[in-house]
Amino acid sequence: xxxxxxxxxxxxxxxxxxxxxxxxxxxxxxxxxxxxxxxxxxxxxxxxxxxxxxxxxxxxxxxxxxxxxxxxxxxxxxxxxxxxxxxxxxxxxxxxxxxxxxxxxxxxxxxxxxxxxxxxxxxxxxxxxxxxxxxxxxxxxxxxxxxxxxxxxxxxxxxxxxxxxxxxxxxxxxxxxxxxxxxxxxxxxxxxxxxxxxxxxxxxxxxxxxxxxxxxxxxxxxxxxxxxxxxxxxxxxxxxxxxxxxxxxxxxxxxxxxxxxxxxxxxxxx
Length: 270
What we know:
It is built from eleven helices and seven strands. It has a seven-stranded mixed sheet. It has 270 residues and is of the alpha/beta class. It has one domain (2-163, 203-269): Rossmann fold.
């Protein structure tokens, strides 16, 4: 009983964190962030390489990607879920504003996915910007994704990386050791300096172990040298510099440095 109560508290805290993000204007500043959009665009380019008729986004936030996929592929169905009621409300507004009849969104986390959807219902499941970092049990989440995917369906999953080397070096040089190694702790507090997000950062090895029942199709790292999205104000109106850093990241993908950036992406096939 106590374990269930603790689990409920964990998810309630995650929901409150993202509800607060919605109140603080996440939708507006995220849409104006050139670093974030560069990464998001690459996520999408990778995702659309894999065929789908029915897609599910876990952790849809304010609906940037649910609406994009539904608009770009009007003959296909796109569903979004998010743990935050306020983020779901923003997505609903976006869907209505764009008149997207092929999109829907609801409040849920990974524990209830099989209650809302049938087994083998989706041929594509995607997670952008680390929603799976805020689950209590990554192995359980992997099982739910496996259950919901049709045979040979694909999961495009991104994670906040445990081994973000650039951040470790920069913060260590500033003598901010607590920040430098925060991602290595059992629980990571998220990006905010004044709010705590119950979450965990994962290494590529930990991710592969959790998704052992899947076939790995491809992997990629982000913000190895390319600046992290939260540094976007330093790079406003500097598109040439952004592109230069992005090119350097691409050149590192076939080296061991691919896994030392802020995010990792994995494409798994059931």
